[in-house]
Amino acid sequence: MSAPHLQFSGLTIGKNGKSLLGPIDLDLTSSGITVIMGPNGAGKSLFLFAAHGLLDFSSGSVSWGGQPARKTRASRGFVFQSTPILRRSVAGNIALALHSSTLRRAERSERIANALTEARLGTDPRKPAAALSGGERKRLDLARAIVTDPRILLLDEPAANLDPASTKELEEILRRIAQNGTKILMSTHDIAQARRLADDILFFDNGQLVEQAGADDFFDAAKSIPAQKFLKGEL
Fold first, then answer.
1. What are the pLDDT digits (tens) for 10-42?
2. Is 70 exceeded by the pLDDT of residue 1?
3. Beta strands in the chain (DSSP E)
4. Cα within 13 Å of Cα(211), Cβ side
5. What percent of the residues of the chain are helix, what percent strand, and what percent coil, each to the nearest 5?
6. From its phi and psi, is residue 19 left (phi > 0), alpha (psi between -120 and 50) or beta?
7. Rounded distance, CA 3 to CA 19, Å?
8. What is the rounded CA–CA span in Å between residue 91 and residue 106?
9. Rg for the chain (alpha carbons), in Å?
């Protein structure tokens, strides 16, 4: 299976006359894990929202495989920095992602069980989701995103506020998902995490995509001044 083709063409996002993102021109056809990096306020989250077709653009376009991002959301899963936990069971929270599907009940149950296994959420699916720990809640978010069997997975700072053990477990899950053929785009402010996971890097600063490179090239010899400063802890 070929890697998904993400294309930004002259995309800009602004508000009240202020530019928040762009202009961005990007062709991304890599497989594996693409990590989006940059300082706070650089535009990482906006980029992911735009890639998923969640925002109105001031100008330009975003497409996946030549189709507008808004029309192709069903092929993608999204894990937000914070997602509300519903007053339902663990399984009930995951099932919500399948509400518009035509799957039979047995198929839904199988999908939910598989998502729980893949997300390493080894808990009783009948357990109230509100009783989960922080790390378990993040894996519940992931299970909800992958239960539809997406070809592409977008994650916004997925390990934020997790302890080291939970972070390690989440990273192992993401590696396995990528190895099984799902394209991953994820943002992180954690340089060490990016080194562990990234196949390639998109680096943002002040709403601009200032560098696109393979992970080894980026960490060994970043070309842009903002990226060099960021890696030195100066930005």
1. 999 998 888 999 999 999 999 999 999 999 999
2. no
3. 6-15, 18-28, 33-37, 59-64, 67-68, 76-79, 152-156, 183-187, 200-205, 208-214
4. 24
5. 40, 25, 35
6. beta
7. 31
8. 13
9. 18
Cα–Cα distance, 152 to 171 (Å, whole number): 17
E strand or H helix at 110? helix 105-118
pTM: 0.92
Angle ∠(25,184,93) on CA atoms, nearest 5: 120
Residue 169 tokens read as: 């477990």
- CATH (domain of 43): 3.40.50.300
d(CA 93, CA 108): 13
Host domain of residue 80: 6-85+152-231
| Edge-to-edge strand ranges of the sheet holding 76-79 | 76-79, 152-156, 183-187, 33-37, 200-205, 208-214
137 is a domain residue: no
For residue range 148-175, what is the model confidence (pLDDT) as tens digits? 899 999 999 999 889 999 999 999 999 9
